[in-house]
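tokens incoming
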């Protein structure tokens, strides 16, 4: 069996200067790249997820409530949907797009260009353990980690390589992941954007 790194939504719109910026996002992008360079053999596979909105309906709010609706972000065809330039994507084997026409927080709701879902891709590559990094600890990282555990993968979140929106929602996320058996290492980055 094998392990995989899942890089969650390290996109321009979620980093400083983006339409839905999370403080520390650019630093997380650079940190992931440093880790991949320093430990090239740590993971057998590396995949990434992308928020990838065409028309997600009520997911975009005007004005947004920042609970169920958000500012326009990661719209297909915009620079905001692209990976942050500090993220080295050379090792990324597959990208899973989520949220084209509805809200989607978990990478397990996404699909590759050929339509394959993340869980099937991981199983096809004999992955039984996953490590997660990315943005945001309290939203898409949390949702992806919970689904990974639910799908039966041994799941670890490398919190020092995640960026969180707010302390209150992060506390809730950490408790929910702990309750689901997700292993957590380090502390998330929580900074004003």
């Amino acid at each position: 069996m094998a392990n995989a790194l899942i890089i969650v939504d390290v996109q321009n719109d979620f980093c400083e200067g983006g339409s839905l910026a999370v403080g520390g996002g650019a630093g997380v992008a650079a940190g992931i790249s440093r880790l991949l360079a320093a430990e090239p053999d740590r993971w057998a596979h590396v995949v990434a997820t992308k928020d990838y909105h065409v028309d997600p309906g009520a997911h975009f709010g005007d004005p947004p409530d920042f609970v169920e609706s958000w500012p326009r972000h990661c719209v297909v065809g915009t620079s905001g949907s692209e990976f942050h330039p500090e993220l080295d994507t050379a090792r990324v084997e597959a990208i899973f797009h989520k949220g084209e026409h509805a809200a989607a927080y978990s990478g397990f709701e996404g699909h590759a260009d050929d339509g394959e879902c993340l869980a099937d891709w991981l199983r096809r590559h004999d992955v039984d353990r996953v490590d997660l990094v990315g943005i945001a600890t309290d939203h898409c990282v949390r949702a992806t980690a919970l689904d990974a555990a639910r799908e039966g993968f041994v799941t670890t979140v490398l919190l020092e390589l995640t960026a969180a929106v707010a302390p209150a929602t992060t506390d809730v996320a950490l408790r929910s992941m702990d309750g689901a058996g997700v292993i957590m290492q380090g502390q998330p980055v929580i900074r004003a954007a």
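note: The first helix runs from residue 25 to 38.
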